[in-house]
Amino acid sequence: MTAIETIRVFSDSHEMEADMAKTGTRMSITSVLGWVEEQLERRRSRRALLEMSDDQLKDIGISRGDAYREASRPMWL
Question: Which of 17, 26, 68, 70 has the greatest number of C-beta atoms within 10 Å?
Fold first, then answer.
């Protein structure tokens, strides 16, 4: 292997590592954003319980007290 080929291989491996690091960062950001989105959807669902009538809550087997308890939980639980 000549010096130029060695430099090129070495250079390519660093580029690949840099690309992998960027992809890993993007994946981490994507997974964090996905988690936040799930938590916000959970919060919306819990708040929607408060807007339901007593009959609607009864249909799904939840009391008004259960709805209040669920809506008051932190979004990450």
Answer: 70
Inter-helix orientation angle 3-51/64-72, to 10°:
150
Q: What is the dihedral of CA 66, 67, 71, 77, to 10 degrees?
A: 40
Predicted pLDDT of residue 6: 46
Instruction: Determine contact, residues 41/76, Cβ cutoff 8 Å.
Output: no
Say how far apart CA 68 and CA 46 lie, in whole Å: 9
Query: CA dist 1 to 6, 14, 24, 28, 72, Å?
Result: 6, 18, 32, 38, 67
